[in-house]
Amino acid sequence: MRAVLRRLVPRSLLLRNLLGVVAGLVVVVLVLETTSPFRNSQFATMSYYAIAAAGLTVLTGLNGQISLGHGALMAVGAYTTALLLQGGSVPFPLAMLAAAVVTALVGVVVGAAAARLHGPYLAGATLALAVGVPGLAIYFDGLLGGEQGLSVRSPRPPGWFADAHYFLTAGELGGAKYLAYIGWITLLVVVLLLANLMAGRYGRVWRAVRDDEVAAELAGMRLGGLRILAFVVSAACAGLAGAVLAMVVRLAAPSGFTIVLSLSLLTAVVVGGLGSIPGALLGSALLVFLPPAVTNLGTGAGLTGVQAAQLAPFVYGVVLVVVMLLAPGGVMGLLRRLWRRGINQGGST
Amino acid sequence: MTLPEASETRFPSARSDPAPLFAADGVTVRFGGLTALDDVSLAARPHEVHGVIGPNGAGKTTFFNVCCGFVRPDTGTLWWRGEPLPGLRPAQLAGMGIARTLQGLGLFAGLTVAENVMVGADRFRRTGFASALFALPRAGADERRLRERADAAMREVGVEDVAARHPGSLPYPVRKRVALARALAADPELLLLDEPASGLGAGEMAELGELVRGLTARMTVILVDHHMDLVMSVCDRITVLDFGRVVAEGAPAQVRDDPAVIDAYLGEEARHG
Fold it and tell me: Membrane-crossing residues (chain A) (predicted)?
């Protein structure tokens, strides 16, 4: 049975990862087509959290650099997208690409500074980024719209996409669903590319640099270059996430990129399991779906609306504490441990 | 410059040696007021094992740190294949074929043994970031090539059967072999071994000695160790450091009988032993 399965899995890394992405796409279509527009918009929200979290887990989990400033990098992507879509002449995929490139360039600068810093100093520097960047939008209010921010024209589905969608599902393509598709297709592309990197040379040497700098340098690793590269990859993801966010919420405003956003991303990555892309997706799903689920439970149990709403952050906090106490490797770490134990027991009996 | 006869001088300088692969010439390193290395010269000839010994604090580790680029000498020059080496970073020296093992091993805990050794082979990769990002076939071929090199290095030191394990789960002597495999995977021309015998039993040490002798077919080895048996049996030449200065240099038998050495090092051991 195992041998048959192994023969079915292609040898080429790209084919293997592509296969995973196609399977993911099928699941995305099934889920988005069978859920309500409200759920669709929740999935759209999850997609941009997951894009940013996937990038962050590469930086923090694989390369060992902490960033409290990824919310600010998302802001760079969101504002770039908002500015480019203002005129109505730039197609949105181009705007998203530009957002990724601009944020990657910011990532070069921040990464170059970060490569020389460790631990609390790195946390402090990136925290300053998270606090400072939204302030720029207020300072340059002529261009960036100040506190109100910039409203974003969300892309409308082009004719061929709507036709193809109708052909496949015989259903209506709402605005929320279209945005969710954009977000999830972007997420799948990001996951594909990150999975390629992680399984290859870069994943290996990033982890080597994280585990022992001296030994890595003796083995010929250029520490600074590899650290900056990890930061740039991660920043490009954050930029894409910001682009999706801008289109989904139709707004790029300073209030959307507070330090809370940066911290939420970090908690998502940690709860899911550092360095794991499935973990980053799981953490993002918790971030988006847990609070409303808890609120619903609360009102179902007879709490008032305010009480139920207060319950959500409490439960999220409890989840965080429990994960840190019982599964410091995050959910994915826990699953891996159980899986290994299962194999060992299977082998001994 | 005329070459003095070896018998005329106790310390043939780096320049006087016929064709050293690697040489240090008049290297001085000061840390604040402390002189860690004082005018140290050493010439490692191709396909020889050159031992560096001396009591604790004699400057052996500092000397290695100079050789692999972690410490810049205040004065003095390093020579590589007859050319002076400008102040290079460790990563650049590694790219030229200088590999070093660490006393503390420095294995990557989050990587399997095979991955650890593949990092050592990294200078043989031929593809860049874009190939890896899109998982192009040539990136896959590159990975297979590195894996083959790693496999060969793991076989050479006998750790191929733990390739999929993580170093933390292995006993110390096996971890030492993994660290050696990682250095060998770089296919270095010069291998710097920092205390390769520490923590090994007598049998393992004999095996190590044989392994190191075997390496000289392909590379030059500079070795720092406390175990006199190993150093005396494995090395072609030995440089003795004491208080940062070279007090003797020569063949093992010559060094062993040198009164300055007995005084500085063996004498100390005799006193403690």
Answer: 12-31, 43-62, 69-88, 94-114, 121-140, 178-197, 228-249, 255-274, 281-302, 314-335
